[in-house]
Design brief:
Distance between the termini: 53 Å
Radius of gyration: 16 Å
Order of helices and strands: HHEEEEE
Number of helices: 2
Number of strands: 5
Helix content: 10-25%
């Protein structure tokens, strides 16, 4: 027996528990693989913590837009983003986000607003965010508390508007 869920996170996990093979759940491996979209998957889940993120096969997702936007996530889960092309607003407005594990995005083109308004994320490195084919980096760190950006590959970039705008804590930037 599964207790009655209280929060949106609990409802999401309850739905997964009731439908582990896919069923009617929009939050299962089957759904993600079939639709190839992570679009807003955990968007707005203020109770979300890394321990609550279900194990999902992200390898076929092409669109990660707003996947964790406005969520309470503090540490991003490991994500196989090999097929991903759009990472727009993926972690935008995640005020609890403190770290991001390696996200290998060799096909990624759009990284705009990816970390916009992240008030606890202070560091990002090219060693944990691979962006070799990125084109749009606009507002990537807009109004974030980022202090250090190192070895970020923007060599194929074309759009950089407001990439570091309103980043008053920024001290070090190393781009390739």
């Amino acid at each position: 027996d599964i207790p009655e869920p209280q929060s949106r996170v609990e409802k999401l996990l309850c739905n997964l528990a009731k439908n582990p093979s896919g069923g009617d759940s929009d939050f299962t491996d089957k759904y993600v693989k079939t639709n190839r979209y992570g679009l807003g998957l955990f968007n707005g889940l203020s109770d979300l913590k890394i321990a609550n993120v279900p194990s999902i096969d992200y390898s076929s997702i092409t669109n990660f837009t707003s996947m964790f936007e406005l969520s309470g996530i503090d540490v991003a889960p490991q994500i196989n983003a090999m097929s991903g092309t759009n990472f727009s607003s993926m972690f935008s407005n995640c005020s609890s986000l403190t770290s991001v594990p390696q996200i290998n995005a060799p096909k990624g083109k759009k990284f705009n607003s990816m970390f916009e308004h992240c008030s606890k994320l202070t560091e990002i490195s090219g060693s944990n965010l691979s962006t070799p084919n990125g084109y749009d980096f606009s507002r990537m760190f807009y109004s974030s508390y980022i202090v250090n950006v190192s070895n970020l590959d923007i060599s194929n970039g074309g759009i950089f508007q407001q990439m570091f705008d309103n980043c008053s804590f920024l001290r070090t930037v190393s781009l390739t």
